[in-house]
Amino acid sequence: MSTPSLAEADLAALVDDWIDWAEAARRLEVTPAKVRTMVREHELAAAVPVPGGGVKLPADLIQDGLPVKGLSGLLTVMHDNRYDDRECIAWLFLDQDFPGRAIDALRENRGTEVKRRAQALAF
Fold it and tell me: Which of 21, 34, 65, 103 could disulfide-link to 30, CB 3.0 to 4.6 Å?
């Protein structure tokens, strides 16, 4: 049996803590409109974790009142390779042997390897 694609990943099972626009805005000390702009500009990523639910952001994308260091560059690389936010979130939260998940490596300031692997996804 093959591994499901990133687009088919169960985001609700991969990500433990989801936040809405208002909570993301509170944590970033900006307006909800600014959070939407940040998502549109690939500074953050958002998706619908549960069919029929609303759009939310993984709470782990915000650290110390800012988007996780290196996240914006990583999201840009992935979007340039035609991945959407849902696929980006799945990739960040799957166990990638960094060790661990890509999001954990980013949060621990080990983003160089994460970005290198994201660049390799194009090949």
Answer: 34
Contacts of 72 (CB under 8 A, 6+ apart): 42, 43
Of the pLDDT bands very low, low, confident and very high (cuts 50, 70, 90), residue 3 is low
pLDDT per position as a tens digit, 30-56: 999 999 999 999 999 999 999 899 999
What is the Cα–Cα distance from 51 to 114, expressed in whole angstroms?
29
Q: Helix (H, G, I), strand (E, B), or coil: what is residue 98?
A: coil
